[in-house]
Amino acid sequence: MRTRVKICGITRVEDALTAVAHGCDAIGLVFYGPSPRNVDIQRAAAIVAALPPFVSSVGLFVDAMPDEINTVLAEVQLDLLQFHGEESPDACRLYGLPYMKAVRVRDDTNLLQYATQYQDARALLLDAFLPGVAGGTGHVFDWSLIPQQLPVPVVLAGGLTPDNVAGAIRQVRPYAVDVSGGVEESKGIKSAAKIAAFMQGVQNAAL
Fold it and tell me: Which residue ranges does the record assign to the N-(5'phosphoribosyl) anthranilate isomerase (PRAI) domain (predicted)?
């Protein structure tokens, strides 16, 4: 089965359309004020409205209050929620939408326990741990820490680039990969050339 691709931190319609043109399966919108890739509701709605069929829109939240998330959902048609903070399973289930839970992986992280705790998550998104940073670190973590048999799909994130994504896929065999900074010209501004190279790296992993 081919590896799916999510390109996160989209802030412009043109970047979303470029990602889609190169074959990505999902785009990620960051609703987290401290992030340089944060988007407001109006811009997010415009990006989602421009997407063609069969491309998923994913909304990323970090310990957001329910009112904040519901305000976004009232205006932006999201297909999947991505929780990057300390949200409990019950908190993730409040919105009647499928979700995935991000886990920042450390040497002592018990991913099997997370998979049990968030058993109804559509996936666990595995990212690098950096103190005080919720995600988008640009750092790679030790992929050997991922158990070979997790009972939920794995979305691999953290420091992926056109240069290392093929090796990452061959080692981890994730359901999907998630990239943001690795395909950017600057924070929040994507590079068409880097997106194309990243997608080629994903294809090369199957060769």
Answer: 5-200
Please confirm, yes or no, whether 92 is among the known catalytic residues: no
Q: Catalytic pick from 67, 127, 142, 163?
A: 127
Show the tokens assigned to 45: 């709605």
**Type of residue at 170:** R
pLDDT tens by residue, 74-131 = 999 999 999 999 999 999 999 999 999 999 999 999 999 999 999 999 999 999 977 6
Domains with residue ranges and CATH for the chain: 4-204 (3.20.20.70)
Nearest residue to 80 (alpha-carbon basis) of 59, 49, 66: 59
Residues forming a β-bridge with 177:
5, 156
177 SS3 class: strand
pLDDT more than 70, % of the chain = 97
Q: Is residue 40 annotated as part of the catalytic site, yes or no?
A: no
How many Cβ atoms sit within 10 Å of the Cβ of residue 110?
A: 11
| Cβ-contact 50, 17 below 8 angstroms | yes
What's the mean pLDDT when you consider all of the chain? Answer: 95
Q: What is the DSSP string of 120-143?
A: TSSEEEEEE-BTTB-S-------G
Indicate the pTM of the whole model. 0.95
What residues of the chain score a pLDDT lower than 50?
Answer: none
